[in-house]
Design goal:
globular
């Protein structure tokens, strides 16, 4: 255990046209309370003033990599090739990491870990807290239960990119990345970390997730086209993780996505609100309901109350008139549209 209590952290920040935010991300990485931290900033062909911002941090030891635009996953791969750390944090250029992240991670470390996931607090474009913390983890979740959820339903509560500390011994199993699987690097590691190691959970909001209207992740206003694109990505990464897992003797069905509440929520949103663009050939609302009948019998990583609430939401989206379905979908995928009472209820459970 002792050798796990010291190590080099590599913070890899991939930036594209985030001149307004990248300086805060870099500053937060430099402020991490740990003696051995390297900060690598990969600028993916920005055409704004990002380059000048990044260059101001070079005298403080930041390693800049400037390259033509090829997408975030390719940028992350470049950063990974130049990194030396045994621990890796892929920090989005519009997010901010707290100084205690390594100390909190080290306190949780156990042999065989692949990823340590934290909670994230939501801030607005100016850095003001929005009184929202996610994900909400079950108190009894363990690496074994997370692995079971992924094998059965391709789903587990986890934050996006910046909310995870990764072990190089795990990442070396998936790098170099399969080209073209996804343009976001977290699709590669979130889908495989529970299958190739132990995912450890720290229930502490250490990273700030910035919502500013141009996020690739959370929506500020409902965008059905984005939901359909994300659904396509999730199906692709489910099949990718099954292929990777098989190489290491782990069995995970490439079709298990059918029984995950999150994938089903995207399926129903697409089918009810924009069926002409639905990305799954032959899929129907009735087919979703048949899958839901199986899904409700399988753990999804939620506590009992959230499990029932999510199943009820799915059933509601399937049967209510379209205007009501649109409101339900908006509350689910565009958090800022939620009524204040609903926000409080979600945080309370």
């Amino acid at each position: 255990m002792h050798e796990m209590k010291s190590g080099l952290l590599s913070v890899i920040i991939c930036n594209y046209n985030y001149e307004r935010y990248v300086g805060a991300a870099i500053s937060s990485a430099l402020a991490i309370d740990w003696p051995d931290v390297e900060v690598i900033v990969v600028d993916d062909g920005s055409i704004d003033g990002s380059t000048k911002v990044i260059e101001t941090f070079v005298p403080r030891g930041v390693i800049p990599l400037f390259r033509q635009n090829r997408g975030q996953a390719a940028a992350a791969a470049d950063g990974y090739r130049h990194s030396r750390g045994e621990w890796i944090l892929f920090l989005d250029a519009d997010d901010v990491v707290g100084p205690s992240i390594v100390h909190d991670a080290v306190a949780a470390m156990k042999p065989g870990w692949s990823m340590i996931q934290f909670q994230m607090k939501v801030i607005d474009e100016n850095g003001k807290p929005l009184d929202s913390i996610f994900p909400m983890y079950r108190n009894d979740s363990t690496p074994s239960s997370i692995r079971r959820w992924v094998v059965e339903v391709d789903n587990y509560p986890t934050p996006p990119n910046s909310g995870n500390l990764l072990a190089r011994q795990f990442l070396d199993k998936i790098f170099p990345l399969e080209e073209g699987m996804d343009r976001f690097v977290d699709s590669y590691f979130l889908s495989t970390a529970p299958l190739l190691g132990d995912v450890l959970t720290v229930r502490k909001a250490i990273v700030s997730y910035r919502m500013h209207g141009s996020n690739d992740g959370a929506q500020s206003v409902l965008d059905i086209g984005k939901i359909e694109r994300d659904l396509t990505r999730h199906l692709r990464r489910c099949r990718y993780s099954a292929r990777i897992a098989e190489q290491y003797g782990v069995n995970a069905s490439p079709e298990r996505w059918r029984f995950g509440f999150y994938n089903m929520s995207m399926r129903l949103a697409s089918l009810r609100l924009a069926p002409s663009g639905h990305p799954i050939a032959g899929d129907t609302v009735f087919g979703c309901m048949k899958d839901l009948a199986i899904a409700v019998t399988r753990e999804q990583g939620f506590n009992a109350l959230r499990h029932v609430a999510m199943a009820t939401w799915l059933f509601g989206v399937a049967i209510v008139p379209q205007p009501i379905a649109r409101a339900l979908v908006s509350w689910r995928f565009a958090p800022l549209s939620r009524p204040r009472l609903l926000k409080r209820l979600i945080q309370a459970t």
